[in-house]
Amino acid sequence: MFSPRSTHTHTHTHTHTHTHTHTQTHREAEGLQKVQRPICCSGMEARKLHARRIQGTGGEDEALAEPHESVSGRPLSAAARLCVYALHGCLCEVAFTAVCDWCSTQDRRLPGHSSLWALPMYATAIYLIESLRARLLAQRRPLPLRLMAYTMFIYLWEFSWGTGLRLLGACPWDYSGYRYNLGGLVTLEYALPWTVAAFIAEQHVIRNTLRIRLHN
Known about the structure:
Blueprint: H1 4-55, H2 59-70, E1 74-75, H3 78-105, H4 118-138, H5 143-167, E2 181-182, E3 186-187, H6 191-211, E4 213-214
Antiparallel strand pairs: 1-4, 2-3
Helix pairs in contact: 3-4, 3-6, 4-5, 5-6
């Protein structure tokens, strides 16, 4: 049998336990709300950022859009690039021969010279180097290796054109006076100048020519 005192004590203990459980549950609910609030705020900020990106008002999107605007338009055709390369080659040859003649004759008039045959020769050479450049860059070849490949190609191209023009009696150059020449058509003394020419062609002429865009 239970006495009234024990019954009261049991009831009080049960009430205290219920109150403690309710208080703990309430605190856990408050803690959960505190955790959920930053998540909700983060979600709202994410939605606002996404809306700004869709409308195109975000600074990052404008920065990313600038390259697309800069490359819009029509690139130069192959014929136009051939003309650019031909003019560049002839201009460099006139400047180079003028400097070389000045070193030997001190002629301040700088009478550089070239030939009309140089127009198709330089145009096709740089045009083919353009394709070679794209392939070597796709293979991630380093610059020294690319310059070596360009220089070897230039020697092959010069020898081929020289042989053909000599058959026509129209070869405008002769390296017979150089020590390390081959048939007067090519010479090792020009290895450094051709390497420098290849560097200028790849890093400046071809690169900038491919960047040109025509707008209607």
